[in-house]
Input
Amino acid sequence: MQKLLSVVSPKAPATSSGLSAAPAHLESSNVVQSFTNDGKAQTTSPENLLIVSPYTSRPHLLDLTLLNHAQVFLAKTLTILTPVVETYATLPYISSFNWKAVFGLLAASAKADGYVWKEQFFYVIIFRSQVPPSTNRSDLAALDVKAHAEAMAGNGLLKYWFGTPDAEGRNLATCIWRRREDAQPGSSGEGHRAAMRATIKMYTEWQVERRKLIVGEKVEGWDIIPWTD
Output
């Protein structure tokens, strides 16, 4: 298991341009109405809605009131997730992102709040792909938006990130779920099925990898290992 050698300060992360990243929550004062799995209406204030993907409209936001404390901490921390190399599409997943900063911030945030983190794990999907130059990426983007909204309906997708195709059309996308059971309904909607049909037709090649993200006691260690059923 990876060990944290130091804990980073929970400041707003710097982007590649050197600017501080904007807070990943809505600034509007409007109250949003949504529905629980049993169909009951509920209202959620904007400070409890988290942007966890490139999409910022209501169907794509994470409702923090439906998560436990650990899931809230991790979801907020994952807003700083960013690649540390340009070749993330082909390099090992564990060495492609700023995981040390993520878990350093998680440890600092939990400690500051007086929360004692217990060891637990999360479900990770990695999608590696290659698209030919002739691919209509606007069509793929529209399919992705619909599939993501479906995935967010269960409120278990804590982070969705995708990159930009490199010169050879290779790219990587990743989902971090609170548990595997949340991912199953999210992959059965019509939007996701349409995206998979497009994948078969439009992509030169594609590969799905499953991982287990383990966060140790008090966030003193972490690891990302192959998922086994």
Q: What stands out?
A: Confidence is low (pLDDT under 50) at residues 5-43. The radius of gyration is 18 Å.
